[in-house]
Amino acid sequence: MKTKRQKLAAALLLAATALMPAYAQNITQQQQPFKGVVGKTSAESKEVWTNPVKAPVGAPNVVWILLDDVGFGASSTFGGVINTPTFDSLANNGLRYTNFHTAAICAPTRAALLTGRNHHSVHEGGFSHTWASFGYPGWDGRIPSDKGTIAEILRESGYNTFAVGKYGLTPDQDATDAGPFDRWPSGKGFDHFFGFLGSQTDQYKPDLVEDNAHVKPDGRHLNDQITDKAISFIGRQKKAAPDKPFFLYYSPGATHAPHQVAASWSDPYKGKFDGGWDVFREQVFARQKKQGIIPANAVLPERNPNIKAWNSLSADERKLYARFMEVYAGYLTYTDHEVGRVVSYLKEINQLDNTLILIVIGDNGASKEGALSGVIARSSVAAVAAPQSEADQLKNNLAQIDKIGTPEGTNANYPLGWAQAANTPFKYWKQDAQSEGGTRNPLIVFYPKGIKDKGGIRNQYGHVIDLLPTTLEFTGIKTPEFIRGIRQDSIQGTSLVYSFNDAKIASRHRVQYYYIFGSRSIYKDGWKAGFAFQPASGSTGTFASTISVPNPANNDWQLYNLNEDFNERIDLAKTNPKKLEELKALFEEQAKKYNIYPYITWDDVLKGRLSQRPAEQPEKSEAEK
């Protein structure tokens, strides 16, 4: 009879034996076994060198650009009236994807983008901030090591990797100079990083980080600083290794609040928005039809609930709200200009024609966080702790109108009417995972040597998880089984390369779920079911019921056939209950498969934020702010 010690030894041996193939492969990945000969003297020995990893022959440079809080209809590239000449040029020499999607809010979108996996699968159901993460697999805000990023894959495939701007995926507890750094950009595959780790920062006084340490900003606008740094990274690398490709993740804080930009950029828009958001929506809608961005028979949806007709506003309201939009427009045009500096530099060093550029214009729909009257210097935390009436907010904003866009406008964000206008032709806005207005953002694909249909429009369904497999297929790099010795989970996105040179080919991304703090939807083959979450009565603040989408009276799901009704005007839930139940069941399957459970809602978040009086709350770090 075996003793307990013998049984334990046998069990350990069995476990070790089971792990040996994987372990051996891990060692092979990290260090090739020596195949030479070691004798007593050099004459009796044979040396063998391990060749450094090189990217596939002819592999292009890769640039990913992700803007923040830009609605579908804001840029001139997709029918908007805000000038974005750099994006126009890239799209006119590349492709416009009109049916591309994000996760409806920033951190989930970024986690899904970088990993090629759904955001709950990589533990980013909400945020990496302490106030909006929870101790469950889909919600703790900590991307696991078996969900490798595009930067980790490309770096191990012979690329240099750089990131500038907003990262947004480092847990607050780790975001000091003491680390740990495994969930900073440097720990997720980037050779160099320059930007900020949080979700939002002052554009003139950013919470700035370079590589693994906080640094002092130089007083210039953050867009200017990150662009200089991106150009510097590329220039140094190309000087040292001209033939080695690079990956740049360019992710400005723009156009997230605070909307801050020099007057030289906002002044050209003076008077341009005096006609208001109703006129703006009609103009953009007509331009989108003319460009072929939307169907010729499309109908513009009604204004969202609680949004007043522009002509019903007072003179003071119209003056204030028009100024908000002038600054926002200047901010977006300036951001386009800074991207243009990177593009111009690539052209100057003869790298532009050998660079795949993927641009997602917004990590979600236009922001609803400016509430009904807009915000200038009052923080969202203050709004939760001591909410103002609409009249008081309007009065305070009018008194501070000259601060909009300036360094003193520390949380400047436009009012809700402009958010819906920027999302033309859709309803609703950021955070609304049930709505195309929250989840549909434009994509531009640019690669001069590989795109035949220059200026072409693509309507195939896509999602941010698709960009990683798209990049790997286009560069000829296989999805790795291991990264730094850790077996990798499967990629969940679908490469879009199949559609690059075929405008009519059927979509291959056929199913996609969305869930943001209660609001949810499920898409399959052109059909979509959605549920609009309403925070509990009495909730207050920026994320509160006063600016949330009201549920239907019966609190039920809604159903849309996007193949015939792309902007969700006609609810078919009552006329096609069988299809609705089919999609609801599919959502439950996805919830179990991808770690959505438990259903965390805004009520859960607000309870945590409001559980202590402001005076009792500990001082927040810059990262938490």
UniProtKB/TrEMBL annotation:
Pfam families (UniProt xref): Sulfatase (PF00884)
InterPro entries named among the record's database cross-references: Alkaline_phosphatase_core_sf, Sulfatase, Sulfatase_CS, Sulfatase_N
Molecular functions (GO terms): hydrolase activity; metal ion binding
Domain Sulfatase N-terminal stretches: 60-477
Signal peptide: 1-24
Keyword Heme applies: no
Keywords for the protein's UniProt record, in alphabetical order: Calcium, Hydrolase, Metal-binding, Signal
PROSITE patterns xref list: SULFATASE_1
Family in the record: Belongs to the sulfatase family.
Protein name: Arylsulfatase
Annotated organism of origin: Dyadobacter frigoris
Lineage, highest ranks first: Bacteria, Pseudomonadati, Bacteroidota, Cytophagia, Cytophagales
